[in-house]
Design a protein that fits this description.
By secondary structure, this protein is of the alpha/beta class. It has helices at residues 2-18, 22-36, 52-60, 121-125, 147-150, 163-171, 194-204, 223-237, 248-257, 260-266, 268-280, 282-319, 321-376, 381-419, 458-481, 490-604; strands at 40-45, 77-81, 86-91, 112-116, 138-144, 153-157, 181-187, 210-215, 243-245. Strand 7, helix 7 (194-204) and strand 8 (210-215) form a beta-alpha-beta unit.
């Protein structure tokens, strides 16, 4: 069976080396040497004054560890077999001066041994004698001729500190680092504390063989109730460690009196049986359990950075070349939409501008024509023409200037409206242009020609009066002849004069209305010609502005498109390269994760345990 777990352990070492973890490789090598060593190293830990030293003395039935001397325990005490009782302080060289082997692994530690008299063991444990200043970690080694120790049992009494500090302090020393079993000692005067439970949780993650020893049962009458509550605490905390109540005092007293009953009452037979079972089963059951624990620790530490790297790659995918490629693609699409928007905006706004400008000019000319109609409803063109012509020309020039000024403002507004579609690109895109009022706008107006107006001359008046008076005189002369009066008489002459005057007045009014209608028609034609000419000039100016804006923004769009397309190409090339490298690295990581999972499963099968793949399942 040794070959199975040893092959798994060697595979774990090769895996550590493949992943470049020299620290884990050193730990695995130390564990390999430890498991091949027939000795069973038992680390006794716990809080101060829990009876750790007395427990060791009771196990081997010898005063190996100092008890009750009032000194502070500073150094661990290693109790092992020796042909004759002996003691020494073993100290490693300083950490900076230690030689290293291949792959950065420490070479065989060169320790310095300082012999101690048996009565100086207490002073050595307290660090008062035997320890050289400036040296590395040290421990006290005690050798005794005992059968259990000769069978391979090695007991390590640690200072009364928390478990992490105890292991860390001993880790620098060659002998006590490789523990095959851990005894956590807690006396019966109280239940397990939170610190002790935390210590157990920490230890059981890397050490499968842990036993809780409840000491000093001789001091507490209801120690069995305390033991049951402690077992419940262990179950609630998820610590799979057995609890063995013992009394070192009863054990030592039974050994002195050779009292088997008292020895059984002390509880030590169960503890010693457990140690003997671990000693005989070290090369089989204990070794396989230790390899499982090593595999779990190593695989978790090797898989953690791989999972973190996969998570990092997922995060980089959201902010790396792929995201830049997506951003570049969005920029290309946005520029395409921007190009459509500004072209539609320019076409729509220019169409609205032409319609509004034409309507504005039409409204202004209608107001002028209404003023003309109102004026020539009463005025005589023969009298008011010169004054009216001056007013009309001034009014048309003012209308043209106001309309052109509005055209300038609207063209500038259209340019800014189109430029607003490029705001997301962060710079001014207005074209360098200016549109001003033409200096020769008044010269562009059509000339106002004086219409031909009929005058009412003196001869026309005389002829019209004669025609009117003749009819009246003849009509009334015939009427007076019936009264015996001649046809031409004062009455008929007077009536004829009245009819002649009326005819002259009626003809004058008809001629005035014809003159007013003639002038109104002439002015209507003139204003229509003005309107057509001005509308044509405005349309030409608007089209020039439209072409200028179209050419400017088309060139701007082409520049942006060239820059964005170039950025897109670069981002795509970078993304393709990044995707290829990431996929290759992900395949490597998943292959490593698969191998770690296989190694973990292989280690769990040493004891027929069902592996827990969730620890190693790589993320897709």
């Amino acid at each position: 069976m040794a070959g199975i777990w040893l092959d798994v352990l060697d595979e774990i070492a090769r895996t550590c080396n493949t992943h470049g973890r020299g620290d884990l490789l050193q730990t695995v090598r130390q564990k390999r040497a430890q498991l091949l060593d027939p000795k069973l190293r038992v680390l006794v830990v716990g809080e101060p004054n829990q009876g750790k030293s007395q427990l060791i003395n009771a196990i081997i039935n010898a005063p190996a560890c100092p008890v009750g001397d009032g000194r502070t325990t500073v150094l661990p005490t290693v109790v092992q077999h020796a042909e004759a009782a002996s003691a020494a302080v073993v100290q490693a060289p300083p950490a900076s001066g230690r030689p290293t082997g291949a792959a950065g692994a420490p070479a065989a530690t060169l320790v310095e041994r300082t012999p101690l008299a048996l009565d100086q063991v207490a002073a050595g444990v307290s660090g008062a004698v035997g320890r050289q200043p400036g040296g590395g970690p040290a421990y006290v080694e005690v050798g005794l001729p005992r059968a259990m120790l000769a069978a391979g049992l090695v007991l390590v009494d640690t200072p009364g500190t928390d478990q992490v500090a105890a292991l860390g302090g001993a880790a620098e020393v060659a002998a006590p680092t490789r523990a095959d079993a851990v005894l956590l000692v807690s006396d019966s005067t109280r239940e397990l504390s939170v610190a002790e439970l935390d210590m157990l949780l920490h230890v059981t993650r890397s050490q499968p063989n842990v036993v809780v020893v409840q000491s000093k049962t001789d001091l507490v009458a209801d120690w069995r109730a305390v033991a049951e509550r402690n077992r419940q605490h262990l179950a609630d905390a998820g610590v799979a460690a057995p609890l063995i109540p013992v009394s070192a005092t009863l054990r030592l007293r039974a050994a002195a009196a050779d009292d088997r009953g008292l020895n059984a009452e002390s509880g030590f037979p169960a503890l010693i049986a457990r140690l003997q079972r671990d000693l005989t089963g070290k090369a089989d059951h204990l070794a396989r359990a230790s390899v499982q624990a090593v595999a779990r620790t190593v695989v978790e530490q090797l898989a953690a950075p791989l999972r973190a790297e996969l998570a990092t790659q997922d995060a980089e995918e959201q902010s790396g070349p792929i995201s830049r490629l997506h951003a570049a693609q969005r920029e290309v699409d946005e520029l395409r939409r921007c190009s459509t928007r500004w072209q539609n905006t320019l076409a729509d706004e220019m169409a609205d501008l032409l319609s509004d400008i034409e309507y504005d000019l039409r409204d202004r000319t209608r107001q002028i024509l209404r003023a003309v109609d109102e004026a020539f409803d009463t005025a005589d063109p023969l009298v008011a023409w010169d004054t009216f012509a001056e007013w009309l020309e001034r009014s048309l020039v003012e209308a043209a200037e106001a309309n052109h000024e509005w055209l300038i403002q609207r063209c500038d507004w259209v340019a800014r409206r189109v430029a607003a579609t490029f705001d997301r690109y962060g710079y001014d895109v207005l074209p360098p242009w200016s549109m001003t009022m033409p200096a020769d706008l008044g010269d562009r107006l059509p000339d106002l020609e004086r219409p031909r107006i009929d005058r009412f001359t003196t001869g026309q008046k005389l002829f019209t009066g004669m025609k009117g008076s003749y009819g009246g005189m003849l009509m009334f002369g015939l009427a007076t002849t019936l009264a015996g009066m001649p046809m031409i008489n004062p009455v008929s002459v007077g009536i004829g004069a009245l009819f002649g005057g009326k005819s002259i007045r009626d003809e004058g009014k008809q001629l005035l209305r014809r003159r007013q209608a003639t002038v109104k028609t002439a002015i209507q034609r003139h204003v229509d010609e003005f309107f057509v000419r001005m509308v044509r000039d405005c349309r030409d100016a608007a089209r020039q502005v439209q072409r200028m804006l179209r050419d400017h923004f088309t060139g701007l769009t082409e520049e942006l498109q060239e820059a964005i397309v170039q950025s897109f190409r670069s981002a795509k090339q970078e993304a393709d390269t990044d995707v290829a490298l990431r996929e290759q690295r992900q395949r490597e990581i998943r292959l490593k994760m698969t191998r770690l999972a296989a190694l973990y499963e292989q280690s769990q099968q040493l004891a027929g345990a069902r592996p827990t793949p969730v620890l190693l399942e790589p993320r897709a």
